[in-house]
Each structure stands twice: as C-alpha cells, then as structure tokens.
Amino acid sequence: MPVSVDLFSYRKFWAKRFGTAPQLPVSRAEMDALGWDSCDVVLVTGDAYVDHPSFGMALIGRLLEAQGFRVGIIAQPDWRDAGDFSSLGKPNLFFGVTGGNMDSMVNRYTSDRRIRSNDAYTPDGAADRRPDRCVLVYSQRCREAYRDVPVILGGIEASLRRVAHYDYWSDKVRRSVLVDAKADLLVFGNGERQVVEIAHRLAAGEPVAALVDVRGTALLRKQVPGGWTLLDSTTVDEPGSTVPPPTDPYRETPETACRRDSASEAGHAIVHLRRITARTDPERTVIRLPAYESLRNDPVLYAHASRVLHQETNPGNARALVQRHGDWEVWLNPPPVPLTTKEMDGVYGLPYSRLPHASYDGAKIPAFEMIQHSVTIMRGCFGGCTFCSITEHEGRIIQSRSEDSIIQEMEAIRDTSPAFTGVISDLGGPTANMYRLACTSPEVEASCRRPSCVYPGICKNLNTDHGPLIKLYRRARALPGIKKILIGSGLRYDLAVLSPEYVKELVTYHVGGYLKIAPEHTEQGPLSKMMKPGIGTYDRFKAMFDRYSKEAGKEQYLIPYFIAAHPGTSDEDMLNLALWLKRNGFRADQVQAFLPSPMATATAMYHSGRNPLRRVTRTSEPVFVPRGVKQRRLHKAFLRYHDPDNWPLLRDALKRMGRADLIGNGKHHLVPTYQPGGTGGAPEGARVSERVHRFRTQQVKPRVRSGRGGGRSPR
Q1: Which of 305, 291, 297 lies closest to 238, judged by CA?
Q2: pLDDT 10s digits, 637-660
Q3: Within its chain, how far is the Cα of 381 from the centroid?
Q4: Quick check: 319 and 311 in contact, CB under 8 A?
Q5: Closest by alpha carbon to 289, among 505, 573, 599, 582?
Q6: Peptide bond just before 366 cis, omega within 30 deg
Q7: Which of the 8 DSSP states describes residue 209?
Q8: Which of 173, 585, 638, 690 is the most exposed place for a label (fewest CB within 10 A)?
Q9: What span, in angstroms and rounded, lies between the C-alpha atoms of 710 and 282?
C-alpha cells in the first residue's frame, strides 16, 4: 500500500490561535464573535448544518479547524442568485462544494422519478431547500460570488459523477461533473487526506493548477503530460471477440495474490494484462477510457468503461485514468490511501457539539433525529453489491476505529446529549459486522482486483474473526448509564453465520424485537447480477436467529428486504419471490424498486443490457433489464401481492404467464378472484411510501408495523 502523510502530522496553520469554535460559523455575526475577519475555507452544502461526525461537512470542517484553518459553513443556500454565497465573505483558500450526505437527485426523486414530499436532511423535512444537481448549481454561484477563488467539489454526488456516467433522471450519459461545474478539482471517495493536503498546499502559496498529484482527486488537463505510459482501455480488457472463453479479469492479481486461482483460471485477457503491467511502471501509467463522445451513444462501450474503472479502484495497485471530454482531458489520480486506526480515532475524536446549528431554533432534522445517538465504528465495504454505491465511494478496505475511541464517544453521548435516554441506536457503519475484518496478507490486499471478498464465495484470504466486535459489544454494554445498544446498520449475514458466537451475542443483547437484513432476492438470476449470496444463506442465518432468540426467551423476528426490477430480474423471478413471501408470511409495507445510481455496476447493466462482471464484448452475455413504468409497476406489485390495488394487474400478468392456477381464494393461491369495493382503481404504489434503498415488511403472526425495528441498512 502506498505511504501517506499522517493526517495530524502537518504543521498547523497560523490561525490556530483563534481556538475551537462552539459550532462552525454560518454568519458574519458569528465570525465577528470569534474574532475572525475572514474564513480560510468556506464549505457549501445541500444539507442542514449538523455538527455531528455523521454529516460530511461537519467532519471535514472540524478536521480543517484542527489543522488551524478558519472554516465557515453555508448550508442550504438560496441558489437562485449569488447573494448567500458571499454571506461569509471571500474565502482565503477555496470553496468546498458538496450536494450533501446523499446525491441530490436520489434525495429529491423516487425510483419512479417522482419528487419526494420530504427531505430528511432539512429542518422539519422541507422538500424545497436544494436544487437538482446541487454540485453544478452551487459551483456556478460560487464563481459568480468570487470568480478568482478555487472551487473544490466533494461528497458522494461529485464522487459518483467523476467520469462520464449514465444519468437515470435524464436517461442519457452525462459528462463528468467536473467539466459541467467548471471547478478546479474534484475530491472523490472519503476526502480527509485530499482536503487536508489541498488546504496546506494552497496555504503555502501553491496555485490550485499545480495540485495535479493529489491521490483521490480528479482534474482537467489539455493533454496527457510527458513521461507517462498511456494504455488504451481496450488493451486492458478488449471489447472484441471472445476466443478463448474469458473468465473474470476482476480476479487478476500477481501470483502472490489469491493463490487459489490457477493459471488455467486466469484466462487470456488476464495473462495479457500481466504482460502489459510487467513492462510498464504503474506509478507512471495512465489508462485511457473511451471518450465521452464515443460512449454516450454506445452502451456496450459504456459497460466496458465501467468495468475497467472498477478494476482500478484498489489504492494498492490502481493506475491513473484519463477520459477525453471535447477539448479537455478528465484526469483521475489513483484513490486515496485508507485511514489508519489512529487517524480514524483522530477524525471522530474532534470536538463536535453533536447538535444542529443553533440557528435552526429547535426545528427537527429527521436525519439527525435518527443518528444522533449512533456511533460509527468502521468505514468501507468489501461486499461489492453491484447496486450499491458504498464501495465506489468508501472503498472495499475496512477502516476501523479503536475500541477506546468508540467507548469515549459513547461516554460523550451519555454525558452531553440532552435527549439521551440510555439507548445507543447503532454501533456500525456501512455494515454492522465488518469491524476489523481484512485480508490476512497486506501484499495480497494491495494487489487484488476482485470487486468482492465474499462473492461468489468468501475468499480464503479474508479474516472473518468476529472476536474484536464481540469484545466491543460486551465492553460497551458494561458502561454505566447505557441501558441498551441496538444494531441498526445492515448485517452481512453470510459473514455472521461463520461466527455462531457473534450471532448469539447479537440476538441475545442487541435486537430490539426485529432485525432487518437484506437477502434482496430469492432467485439466482438477479442475485448473480447483484453479487449477493443465495437464499440458502438467509435460511441458515434465520435458523440461528430463531434458535438463539428462543434460548434467550425472546420473541424476535427477521425483517428481510428485497429489490424489485433489478437488472437480471424476469417476471418469473418476481413471481417466485412473491410466492416465497406468501409462503413465509411476509407482507411488504414499503417497496424498493431498483434505482440506477451514477457509476454503479448495476447501472451499467441497466443502461447497456450487458454484464460488466464478465468481459464485455459485442456478443457477450445479455442482461434482461426490466424497463418502463408498466413492467417496474408489475415487479413492485409482486412484492405487494397482498394489496388489493395490485390484484387486477397481477391477475392479468398471471394469465399472460400461464399461471392462472395461482388465482383463487385458497391458501395456496397468490391473489383472489374477487375485488373489494373501492379498490383496483388507484395506480399501484400510490399508497406506498418509497425509500431509495430499503423497505419495511409486515409479517403475519405477528404483524410488524412500519417504523419499528431500528435504523438504516445500507447492505
């Protein structure tokens, strides 16, 4: 793994003399009270300002403050003119711009492209406080306010749009957001290393145009500079004929990596890639992705580009990428080096007030209400689910905090939070149970190109010991004043079943009646495109869950999540899932339809109808994609087979599919022959409150009501 400068080893900027702000200022009056004549950095965000480490701008702001810089926050500005963007005066170093904790389009629109009625990151849930494509609009307003101040993009919206990307809302391939925003730099992934380095180098007098070598950033160039070896992406993974039959180039590693892969499994394309790598210096090699103008009208080429980009995401072996956009080259440096445990402790130990800014005057911010008493214990995910953006943004190398740091944060919540009742709502992160899990060999980890450590099976090089997490749970429970600790993050149950002791610990002490997990589907067609384990793994986990619940004398239930209309899902797959739900007594209260988020592998499947998990060619494996309102509505209707509004649609579909035998009034039928009065006229889903990434269920005997069962589950 490349060596990186420790986050907290930089010499502090002179403005450290002003000390620590109770909350970062959002107005000139607050700046005056702190004795500031100006801000060194102004952060602009589409979210309300909550001084909590779960909110990205608070974390970055406090980190820059710890480096000695004066940081101001412009939260949810009026974007219709530049007035709000000059409210804190001209920043001395740069504007940092983000759409917020979520992509602004995902935040504002459902998977059916309907405008949502609320925004969880806004006071009182108001839905009109941010524009579409926040990053673009905010960047333009910053330029209007102060044309000569560098603009640095960051956050998940910019991160997932750093190259040419398919945009679901306009149904077309859009340019890199860096080009459209006309910004100076784009920070992708978790941004601590990049932002700290950028701030110190600008403060030292370097022009922003000189910052071309910061890992985890994208920038615009007129041409590829001299001294670099330029490889066309088609020499890495050629989208041509398939002789001999290819295997998965994601498995390509040096001989020391994943030794279970034999030479015969490596395949022609991998051997070719090794030969190229052997005669080039990866530190001075850049891979040319197909130009925006080439792939915007060529879905197969788009899938190829997506595949190559995902091969170059491991900080240990990733090479720079370049993609032509008209007269500009979008240059992507390799990803940032993951934070060490010491650095993670430092970041989460900064002096957050853990409260919304005082200017909100007690207004409720739903996202804060949900996470205010949760504790992040790790980052990253090596699951590689194709529909998920966690790996693309945070990486697949797990970054964990120390046990002492986590305990100290819990004590701070207990001692300072005015609303604390003794319940910690979550100890987790992107997943509940990847804490301290990692590759057993640093050399293998640094050279691996697999997109997942757990699919199609769990890698033999992966340490799956849940012991450190069990120890953390036990120490946390023993804290005075802590009555209950719930686990609200998504559980990776295919890992959990390897540790019965962990499952017993979880089920006995940390389940509040219901535990949410995400099988996502029951059928191999969609599961193979999601890179998720088969339903048999769920069954094994459920058996353990039921056993340990019974031993603990508790009545507890699993709440499974499923996705409708994912690439690779046929009508028959959804029918089989509906029959499984009925057979197991589950009734979906909220449904999740696949939403193609920018840069995700499943989005490339959706756009291209090809499978980039395998080598992409003009004749390679096609992927069936449920498209159009009618078919997506049908797939959601199968998930809500019990809703009378869906019965007419399902009856028609069952007859068309030759399964009229499932229409009737018996227990073995899926939908009845009768139609209750006053139903059947409303569009399916009109009464369904969609969430982008999850849905709740109601289980027959007992019924599980909406809103019960804990927090978020990104897995």
Answers
A1: 305
A2: 999 999 999 999 999 999 999 999
A3: 9
A4: no
A5: 599
A6: no
A7: G
A8: 585
A9: 45
Q: Could you give the residue ranges of the DSSP H alpha helices within 315-388?
A: 341-348, 366-371
- Among candidates 162, 165, 208, which has minimal Cα distance to 334? 162
Half-sphere exposure of 487 toward its Cβ, with a 13 Å CA cutoff? 29
Q: How far is it, in rounded angstroms, from Cα 104 to Cα 110?
A: 11
Q: Buried (b) or exposed (e) across 139-171, using 16+ Cβ within 10 A?
A: bbbbbebbeebbbbbbbbbbbbbbbbbbbbeee
DSSP letters for 225-243: PTT-EEEEHHHHS--S--S
Q: Which two tokens stand for residue 297?
A: 């009208």
Spell out the domains of the chain, with CATH numbers in brackets.
Answer: 14-222+327-332 (3.40.50.280), 229-302 (no CATH)
131 and 612 Cβ atoms separated by less than 8 Å:
no
Q: How far is 265 from 298, CA to CA, in rounded Å?
A: 30
- Tell me what pLDDT residue 497 has: 98
Token couple for 577: 């899932």
Residue 135: its pLDDT value, please?
97
| DSSP 8-state code for residue 570 | -
Rounded CA-CA distance 235/239 in Å is: 9
Between CA 683 and CA 691, with CA 689 as vertex, the angle to 5 degrees is: 125
Q: What is the enclosing helix (H) or strand (E) of 286?
A: strand 285-289
User: What secondary structure letter does DSSP report for 336?
Assistant: P
Task: Please say whether the beta carbons of 641 and 671 come within 8 A.
Answer: yes
CA atoms within 13 A on the CB side of 491: 34
362 vs 391: CA distance, rounded Å = 35
The burial of 394, by beta-carbon neighbours within 10 Å (0-12 exposed, 13-18 middle, 19 or more buried), is given as buried
Q: Which two tokens stand for residue 218?
A: 């994208």
Tell me the three state secondary structure of residue 142.
Answer: helix
Residue-level pLDDT at 326: 96
Low-confidence stretches of the chain (pLDDT beneath 50) = 240-278, 681-715
| CA separation for the pair 615, 610 (Å, rounded) | 10
Residue 281: the pLDDT is 86
Instruction: Show the DSSP H helices in 559-689 as ranges.
Output: 571-583, 601-608, 628-639, 647-656
How far apart, in whole angstroms, are the C-alpha atoms of residue 242 and residue 239? 9
Cβ atoms of 154 and 97 closer than 8 Å? yes
Please report where in the chains the tokens 């096609």 appear, as a residue: 622
Cα–Cα distance between 653 and 251 in angstroms, integer?
41
Other C-beta atoms closer than 10 Å to the C-beta of 379 total 22
The secondary structure element, H or E, covering residue 545 is helix 535-551
Order of strands, sheet of 592-593, starting from the edge strand that comes earlier in the sequence: 514-520, 557-564, 592-593
> Helix, strand, coil: what percent of the chain each, to 5?
35, 15, 50
The pLDDT of residue 391: 85
> For residue 419, with 0-12 CB atoms within 10 Å meaning exposed, 13-18 middle and 19 or more buried, which class applies?
exposed
Question: Which residue has 């504790």 as its token pair?
Answer: 375
DSSP string, 105-116: HHHHB-TTSPBP
Helices of type H across 220-376: 233-236, 263-278, 292-295, 299-311, 341-348, 366-371
